[in-house]
Each structure stands twice: as C-alpha cells, then as structure tokens.
Amino acid sequence: MGADPIIGMFVELVIVSPIWCYLIWMVYQGLPIFFGGGTFNLFLAVLAGVVTVVPLLLYHAGNRDLPMAMSSLLFYANPTTQLCLGILYFGAVFTMNDAVSFALIWAGIALYFVTRKAARPPLATDAA
Length: 128
Hints:
By secondary structure, the chain is mainly alpha-helical. It is built from 4 helices and no strands.
C-alpha cells in the first residue's frame, strides 16, 4: 500500500483518541479505570498497549512492500492460526456454526485467489 507505518499508527491513534480522553476524564473524576484501578492494573493496561503497538508497527512496516492481495491473505492467516491454536492446544469449543462460518470465509478467499488473473512474465519486447 506504500503507507508509512508511523503515519498508519498515527491515524489509528487519532481514531482511538476519544477513548483516551474519556479515560483521562475518569481519572480526574476519581473513578476507577482498567478493571477497578490500582497501580498494578494501570501498569498492565499500559503494557498491553505496548505489546499491541509493536507488532502493529512491524506489520505495517512489512506490509509496505507487499501487493494488496498478499497483505489481505496475511490479514486472514493470523486469526486462523490463533483459532487453530485455541482449538488444538487450549481445547476451545468449536461448534458447527463456527465451522460453517469459518468455511464460508475461507471459501470466499479461495474463490478470490482461484479466479485472479495470474501475473504474466514480462516479454522480451517489453524490456526495450
């Protein structure tokens, strides 16, 4: 997509800034934030933000040079990996409704990639 990762993160920050304003307002009102407040929960919330932002920055940086089709496939591969890990390793419940919706999503992705026109190699006359 060619977007700078820092600009991408800035746009995401602008989108969530009303939430930050609300949390700051809660602190000034003396209301508990982050599951009841406390220093430890505040530390966990800030750490969760850092743990979330670093992979997003790396994802944006790596995504800059990829074609849109490949980056969108990666966008679906991560949640699929997490789903498989949850089911196979952690024993999460996976109902028939979940399987049907999951199959429909991946059938749509497969249909998209099967019907895409393949990139043709450059001809010798194209280089001249």
